[in-house]
Amino acid sequence: MKVTRPGTPLSPKTITAYLSRIRQYLAWLDVADLDGNPLTDPSVRDWASRDYRAYLLTVAKRSPATVNAHLTAVDDLNRCLGVGPATAKRTTLPQLAPRALDPRAQTRFVREAERAPARDGAIAYTGYYAGLRIAELAALDVDDVHLSARKGALIVRYGKGGRYREVLVHSRLRAALEAWMAQRAAADGEVALFVNARGRRLTTRGIYDILVSLADAAGIREDFTPHTLRHTLGTNMRRQGQDIVVIAETLGHSVETARRYALPTEDERRAAIEGLPVDE
Fold first, then answer.
1. Which of 95, 168, 186, 233 lies at a 20 to 30 A Cα distance from 51?
2. What is the CATH number of the domain that holds 250?
3. Out of 62, 170, 172, 227, which one is annotated catalytic?
4. DSSP three-state, residue 159
5. Cα-flanking dihedrals φ and ψ of residue 217, to 5°?
6. Most confidently modeled range among 16-20, 24-28, 34-38, 223-227
7. What is the model's pTM?
């Protein structure tokens, strides 16, 4: 079975976990008491997914997040088999802000970006200071970069849902973009901002590998994806007291989606508990 996803490439670790979830589901099917074959019959498929959800929660004692991840893998398996995703509701998760880099990890990542070649540093800063999705990074053209001596903006023409937006450029990102554009060597007719060694547009896989390599060099290995940078920007803006509407417009979100950044992070919840007074 070929594991693919549009947009962000899947890491080897993610693919391994995904296939493991499918194998566990198939092993459960071997012993489950089902009237029919859920891999061919949509009506049986729905009951199987609901029973499997109950099994994961009550017998296997899996967390809600893990149960939802298993159901997503099962849905993709069903799509590949032509029976479509099941109508099994996901388990409600605790309401937390999206996972972002903590301040020390951010400092290490920015320092690695400073040491990186001009192109890689500009890519890292665009993710960190502008919050572009990886597909949006790959789609940027030179003409989408508008810089002046003191200001700048990026024109995102291929955002999620085809939304157009303008993202203002941080001074540090402006300097990184200027440094890259001064040495950018593209093939004839290539309009892409970020190009590979052959002068052609970098793919999403190429950008993914660059960002993950920088994170790895910064000692950020657990649960990092390029999307983490996007969540980090939203979290930083929220902590600075920025309006939800401003965050939504910067990230290309709906206002409702951007409200997630007003939720507490896991670290903030932990700090609140550990900060309670102790009766000595």
1. 95
2. 1.10.443.10
3. 227
4. coil
5. -65, -30
6. 24-28
7. 0.68
